[in-house]
Structure formats: structure tokens, C-alpha cells
Write a structure and sequence with these properties.
single chain, about 375 residues
């Protein structure tokens, strides 16, 4: 008999506790009929076939026919900012409350019934809001990633999301793209960014302390109906703007939509024929043709394009992160120094530190930035 598992609370939540809760759900599900399983299978069990694609990017391909049994999403997505539809499925309608791994004040962490990665689960909003990033969501994701050692990826509507209720994917690994070295990228609103050195597509990498700038980039993409995928690691936020229409060539190279999983470096197929066909060159081309530059006004503008005051949504998100900050003035010196020290670690080292449970009290993570520092690049407007 498997003992009952209670959802984790905020005070109990850590990378290790979430990992244990996920494993418990996998074991619990293994003895149940498919219709009752919380997780249909462990993505990394003996039935998974995974192989490096070779090449400089370090991408991998996976063969897992079980994922092919997942219900397909409707191909009728046209607007990135599609309003929430109360009649459609949303995460408040899950049939089994035991799918909830953790309960947070504004979010739940749910099992992903058809996982693609180790520890693959979902951060879902309790509020009935659409699949659109807000400043509050950005802050929540960064906080969770910083303190758990997990990574997270987000698919906007029209960019592989299948449920129009806010959620992002939590995964218990640092994916291949995040293990590439970073080099200088384009300036966004006058501020420097990075890019993965071996990636063929349009990818903008921001430091975790540039959360406000990420918000402004997302806001611009939403305003121009540009789909987007993001990856959050303890140190960086990766942003992939996308074309609104999937290129026809993409279907020739890969049977699935190219979304967050593929852009972070993992390509899953369901047949041996597709597995054998997929090459490093094809993966590079898929990333290139399924991404696009940010809106031109972000790449040509400088500091003078910023609003004089931060939007209310950013004020609310940042004040919840640091209630004691003053309303104006430069950020305290210690958080800025700590962030620089934190960023001197490579991502793999930081993930190991977070998972070990040591040094968390002494390490000031990027989310500890003051409100004035968070708002330095502006924030995400929420309509």
C-alpha cells in the first residue's frame, strides 16, 4: 500500500521536497490504470531512448512513443493575447486533486501527465487568467527557480501552449542550451544582452537581475502579436521571439511544433523513422526558422524609450519581493554585490549549490534585488 501524499506547502517547498513529491507520484501512478494515473510514465525510465545529436550546440533527440498518446491541441490559435475562456479546460478543472504536488499562495504545482524531462511538472496560476506573462508571473517564476535549482520554460499562446490558463513548465535539469557558453548579443533598449554561442536562432539572454527589461521585451511581443518561448535558469532568462506562422519547411524536418522543449535543446519524436531522420543540421535549421528577432523598436531604442514611471504591475510584483525597500534612491549596495558574485558562478555550479541545500542563507539570489533595481529597466504592462 502506498501512503497518501499531501501537497507541499510554501514553507515545505524546496528542490529536494518537490523532487521527492514527484517521485512519490510516479510510484503511486505505476500501480494504477492509465485513466487514474497522476503521471503516465517517468520520462527518464528504461523505455526512453535518448541520444546526442552531435554538433556544437549539444542538442539531443529522444524517442518516446508514449508521448504520442497525449491529446493534440487545436490548431486554431491566432492571437498571442487571446482572452481567457471559462468554458474551455483550465487547471481549476483537473479531475484528481492529487495531481497537486504543492500549494502556494497564488499558484499550484501540478503533475505533468505526459512528461518530457526529469521531474517535469507545471506551475499554474490559481487565478483564472490567460497564458500571458505578467510582472507577477515573471517574479514568481524567478523566485521558484532561484530557490529550487529547477529550470522553467514558458510557451506563449501561438508558441506551443495547449491550455490558455497561465502555466509554465518546471524541469529538474539544466537543459542543453543553458550549458552552451554565452557571448555578447544585441543591445535591447540600450542595455547589453547575451546569446548562446552555438545557437543558430534568434535568442536573447538576460541576467536574472534584468527582470524589468525582460518584462518590457515580453510586453512588446504581446503588443505586436509575436509568439514567444522563455527559459528560466538560476542565473539567466532566455527569450526566443517567434514568427506567427510555423514555416512550412519545419514540417519536413520535424513532425511536432517547435516550442520550449526544442528550443532548450531536446527534440522528442514518436517513431523510429523520425528518430533516425533527425540530425544536428536539421535541429539547427529548425531553431533558426522557428525564431525571429525582437520587435525593431526594442533593438533600435535606448534609455529615452523607457516610461518615466514603472507600471503598476511591476510596482506590485517588486514590492511583494522586498517590502522594506524605500520608494526611491539607489539600490542598497549589498544586494548588487551579492548578485555580481552569484553571476560569477557558472549555471551548473549554482544548480549543484542549490540542490545541496548549503549556502542558501548566505547566498543572496537575484530575486533579492530591491524594487528600485528591479524597475531600473521598466516592467511589464498588464492590460
Amino acid at each position: 500500500t502506498i501512503p497518501l501524499r499531501r501537497p507541499l506547502s510554501r514553507s515545505m517547498l524546496s528542490g529536494d521536497s518537490l523532487r521527492r513529491s514527484f517521485r512519490h507520484a510516479v510510484v503511486e501512478s505505476s500501480s494504477l490504470p492509465p485513466a487514474e494515473r497522476l503521471i503516465m510514465y517517468d520520462a527518464c525510465d528504461s523505455q526512453e531512448v535518448s541520444q546526442s545529436l552531435g554538433g556544437s550546440a549539444g542538442y539531443r533527440k529522444r524517442l518516446d512513443a508514449r508521448r504520442g498518446n497525449k491529446p493534440k491541441k487545436a490548431d486554431n490559435q491566432r492571437d498571442v493575447c487571446t482572452p481567457f475562456d471559462h468554458a474551455a479546460f483550465n487547471f481549476s478543472k483537473i479531475s484528481n486533486q492529487r495531481e497537486i504536488l504543492a500549494v502556494l499562495p497564488e499558484y499550484n504545482i501540478l503533475t505533468n501527465r505526459f512528461p518530457l524531462f526529469p521531474g517535469h511538472c507545471l506551475l499554474t496560476a490559481k487565478a483564472l487568467v490567460p497564458q500571458q506573462l505578467s510582472a507577477t508571473h515573471l517574479s514568481a517564476i524567478v523566485r521558484l527557480v532561484s530557490h529550487s535549482g529547477f529550470s522553467a520554460y514558458f510557451n506563449s499562446w501561438c508558441a506551443s501552449a495547449s491550455v490558455n490558463h497561465f502555466h509554465c513548465h518546471l524541469i529538474d535539469e539544466l537543459p542543453p542550451v543553458a550549458q552552451q557558453r554565452l557571448v555578447s548579443g544585441p543591445r535591447v533598449l540600450g542595455e547589453p544582452t547575451l546569446r548562446p554561442a552555438e545557437s543558430s536562432g534568434s535568442c536573447y539572454v538576460f541576467g536574472a537581475s534584468q527582470l524589468g527589461l525582460v518584462g518590457r521585451a515580453v510586453s512588446a511581443m504581446q503588443a505586436e502579436n509575436q509568439p514567444h518561448n522563455l527559459l528560466f535558469t538560476p542565473l539567466h532568462i532566455y527569450v526566443w521571439p517567434k514568427p506567427l506562422q510555423r514555416p512550412a519547411r519545419s514540417f519536413d524536418l520535424y513532425p511536432e511544433t517547435v516550442g520550449g522543449p526544442e528550443l532548450v535543446g531536446s527534440f522528442t519524436v514518436y517513431t523510429e523513422r523520425d528518430f533516425a531522420k533527425l540530425s544536428a543540421a536539421a535541429a539547427d535549421e529548425l531553431v533558426r526558422i522557428n525564431t525571429a528577432p525582437l520587435p525593431e523598436r526594442l533593438l533600435s531604442g535606448g534609455d529615452d524609450t523607457r516610461p518615466a514611471t514603472a507600471p503598476a504591475a511591476v510596482e506590485a510584483a517588486s514590492s511583494s519581493s522586498d517590502e522594506s525597500d524605500s520608494e526611491a534612491g539607489p539600490p542598497p549596495k549589498q544586494p548588487r554585490t551579492a548578485v555580481r558574485a552569484c553571476q560569477s558562478l557558472d549555471s551548473l555550479s549554482l544548480v549543484k549549490l542549490l540542490r545541496s541545500g548549503s549556502g542558501l542563507d548566505e547566498l543572496t539570489l537575484p530575486l533579492a534585488l530591491s524594487k528600485s533595481c528591479l524597475n531600473r529597466s521598466g516592467g511589464l504592462e498588464v492590460s
